Amino acid sequence: MREAVHTRAVAAAPPGYRRRWRQLDKSLFVWILLIGALMLLVINPLARLLLASFQDGTTGGLTLQNYLSAYGRWRYLEALGNSLVLGISVGALCTVFGVPMAWAVSRTDMPGKGLVWAAILGTFIVPSYLGAVAWILLAGPNAGWLNRVYIGLTGAEAGPFNIYSMPGLVLVVASYSFPYMFVFTRSALDLISSEMEDAAHTLGAGVLRTTLRVTLPLILPAIMGAFIVAFLEAIALFGAPALIALPGRFQVMTTMLWQFFEFPPKVEIAAAYAMPLLAITVALFWLQKKIIARKGYVSLTGKGGERRPLRLGRWRWAMLAYCLFVTALSFFLPMFVILQAAFAKAWGRGFSLDNLTLRNLRFVLFDQSATQAATVHTFVYGATASAIALVLALSIAYIVQRRLVPFGNALSFLAMAPFVIPGIVLAIGFYAAYTRPPLAFYGTAWILILAFATRFLPIAYANSDAAIRSINPELEDAVRILGGSRLMAMRRVVAPLLKRGLAGGFILVFIPATRELSAAIFLYTTRTQVLSVLLFDKSDEGNFEILASIGLILVLGTVALVLAGFRLVGRDFMLRRNPAA
Amino acid sequence: MMAHYRLVFAIVISAILAWVPLAHAFEGEGQLYEAAKKEKELTWYTAHYGSETAAAVCSGFEKKYPGIKCNYIRTTAQVAYQRLAQDQKAGLAVASVIGSTDASHFGRMKQDGWLLKYRPKSLGELIESAVPYNDPDDLFFITAAGLVVITYNTSVVKEAEAPKRWTDLLEPRWKGKVSIGHPGFSGYVGTWVVQMRKLYGWDYFKKLELNKPRIGRSINDTVTMLNAKESWVAAGPSATTLQSRDKGNPLALVYPEDGALLMISPSGILKNAPAPNAGKLFVEYLFSKECNEIMVKLREESINKHVKVLPGARSLATVKTIRPSYEEIEKGIPEVKEQFRDTFGI
Fold first, then answer.
1. Which one of B46, B86, B156, B185 makes the best mutation probe of the A interface by having the most chain A beta carbons within 10 Å?
2. Where in the sequence is the domain holding A432, given as residue range(s)?
3. pTM above 0.90, yes or no
4. CATH code reported for the domain at B24-145+264-313
5. How large is the angle between the packed helices A370-401 and A445-469, nearest 10 degrees?
6. Is B295 helix (H, G, I), strand (E, B) or coil?
């Protein structure tokens, strides 16, 4: 109907023009719009940063001195090496944590799936610097609770756990990054029909062999995408390393970067120091391409397919125990510490009834006027940013996958690039790009929203990329063959298939945006304060009771909103077994 | 006789009532207040205290001068300066008053012409020991003071066994149990390191390294370390430690025999202040008795010489304090940051 009206309107135009208009693929305009958005969000700030890395701080002339200063010392190189070790270890541990859990929740009859999912959601919501503080109390070498329990049980002189070490940092960072792995692999697993596994069974393969040889290889792109996200997040993190690496006597790139912001700040050297990380991102993508090249990963076709849970028998309890073990590390134990502190008059006194108080929460909620405004800002900015990032990421992923434009790989690189830039450096790029007319966003909420959208665009992109990769182009080709336009194919076929992935992707961006710190701290003003900044300011005030209370508000607020979101989209959209229905 | 007595009483009371506001107000307060009210609100960047204290100072100001809203942005010294520099570069006028714990920032701001010349009428209230640190050109003045002292957890260290001098922290019995901050993150720690180097040479830190101290960022991190019993003794801040003790945490402090480090922190009014009159009024208020009574209650040091400390702390006048000069700090902090990284590896 709409098409008909449209045709009649066009019919009024001159015949030659009309013919050309009809032959023109209208989706072109969408693509131009997208490239414009990428210019605004990624290219402009990164170009400014690149320029700064070659600029003399005072004169503004071109120089290589920044690179010499940034890489001229062994200490600086060592920190980069540590960051690489951290990133790779975190990626590996996230795989060990996340993939079996995703498999258990998606493909098996393991009990307690709701609980496991809730704990993972909770994990994802806790900012890693808050988790790091809790872990210091759990596994501090002298007085950590876990060490005290160990000493109490074995009578040993000292406990085995030392959070102030590289393994300690890896554990903490991985605990807060594995939800990426879980969500990515789970959405991929949900799309695989049991037929493929049945085929393997029929040919005589057991459960283990089928899983390793059929199921896991099919979700390899998702695992690799999540690995990259976890790797990049680990090397760009500042809060947790500052709390754990420094007392553990080692530096990573981000804590080293801090030096360049000491008074007087040397932004140019910081920019130079951050640049080679882009090369690492490129290398990772090349590797991903190399590994998954020439294999098919299409699992969502138009042919239906049945998904049945795998019967694990007695092993289902072992699987549940594993899930609970991981979530105990990431969620239950740290939350226990935070709850204790939030409701304690003096947390150094430990547990007792007369140590309980609501004073901290009352102060944070009512006496500190900033909290209420910051709470509203946090959630409004987070939601807006995730909507922007998601629309952008899906469109780019689609263009790249369907090869609609040349230089698709460049687009996909641009979409992933912001992740590798530490938030603090990204903030400087944004600041340099958007403080002057015509685009003077500094001082408004938009600079925060755009910075959040840019910073988490890679998550949205990796998620969208995996989702689109799994949709067989035949489905859209069917539309095109029957005379529908590409936009129609997207609206009527691709979008409905992606609906569930969209909701998941939204939450994947929304949550990190609510806890984003390193960019926010340089871009907020009095009128645009957010909770993460409030929280960080507390982290060096030695006031853990108040810190825990703000953390609790952030966590509870986000949980409430996410649950409300579930309700809106359909309560079970995260747990539904049949995605294409 | 009775009536006569009452009359005398009434006269005395009204004399006191009349005298009290006069004694604490400053010249031109009424005019400044009227002008400030027209500006409606002011924004204050501060690194001087925790946000609980900053909130209390702001609400005290709003109570004393109704009709003017006080917004604070409490952050660390480096971030406060960085933000202000961003605002200045972008041509944004946000803050009216800036307070930093890093005195070298003020030298730079003065040089860059960001500060407004103003001589507070209440300067006479300032404690004597801080007066020499005011800017001779009236661009910034001391509005906050703090001490770095030896702190410890009373549930693991007895009072008699606690360290008495800075050099006691080097004893082998504290191995793995000392907590300090990092000069690259904290102005307090940087100044403390400069002072220790001045007293005992860099050897002090080489020996301290043998005790494998736990190094946090901010000086306040030592409070968390002590509360968690992860460390037993520390070079910590008096205010935050006492604040945490007032809540019931098992902490105590020792004023070292070789001197507690005095930290004095300046504030200035910005030339591009959106609310210059409210800024001036706010600075006057920082010197006032009301404001410093709030400070003392929250365990910060008073910079008003008439305000008495609460039990559990000693007044600045009775403590032996030590402090490097501005020049020593300005030159010393970048040096000790490097030395610190060489010795401790971070």
1. B86
2. 26-297+311-569
3. no
4. 3.40.190.10
5. 40
6. helix
